[in-house]
Amino acid sequence: PISPSLAQDKSNPSAAWIAHSSGVCHLARSSDSSWAVEKTVDLKGITGMTHVWQSNGSLDGLVLSRKDYRVTFWDQASGQAAVAGQPMSRGSVDGFGTAARFSAPGRLAVTTDGSLLVVDGRALRRLRLGVMCHSVLQEATDLASQR
């Protein structure tokens, strides 16, 4: 069983996205303070999720880590697209896009520089869109050993 994953809606402070075993729902608080499901999307196997949004409208979607060892991006306009990893191809390999491998992608967070941090088993990995996925903890260990 997959535990629910919750992501704040960055464009609406009175809304959130929640992933559960049968899909992803968008919830919003109504004027009477009750919560209502506004939409449900058939995306299964989610292990982590974050909402990414830019006020100029150039970006509004979900970055999802999947139990099939990949990270994907979903938005209403274009559906789902691969960001990193390959379906059902487990590993711990740094690389560009689908050349990267994950062992257990989970929680996600967006950093101030726009990078995406992915908890991957016991590792912390960084994704930079258009660049490559690499292990942040290994980078920190290498830096510490050089000093």
Structural summary, described in words:
It is a single chain. A 4-stranded antiparallel β-sheet has the order 1-2-3-4, with no helix packed on it. It has a 4-stranded antiparallel β-sheet with strand order 5-6-7-8, with no helix packed on it. Strand 6 and strand 7 (70-75) form a beta hairpin. The protein has 1 helix and 12 strands. By secondary structure, the protein is mainly beta. It starts with a strand and ends with a helix. Mean pLDDT is 78; it is low at 137-147. Helices cover 7% and strands 48% of the residues.
Sum up the overall morphology in one term. globular
Structural class label:
mainly beta
Radius of gyration using CA atoms only: 16 Å
Distance between the termini: 44 Å
Mean pLDDT over the residues: 78
Query: How many beta-strand segments?
Result: 12
Order of strands, widest sheet = 1-2-3-4
Helix/strand order, N-terminal first: EEEEEEEEEEEEH
Task: Record the SSE blueprint.
Blueprint lengths: L4 E4 L6 E6 L2 E7 L5 E7 L4 E8 L6 E7 L3 E6 L3 E7 L19 E6 L5 E5 L2 E5 L5 E3 H11 L1
Antiparallel strand pairs: 1-2, 2-3, 3-4, 5-6, 6-7, 7-8, 9-10, 10-11, 11-12
Give the key terms:
single chain; 147 residues; mainly beta; four-stranded antiparallel beta sheet; 1 helix; globular; disordered C terminus
Short description:
7% of the residues lie in helices and 48% in strands.
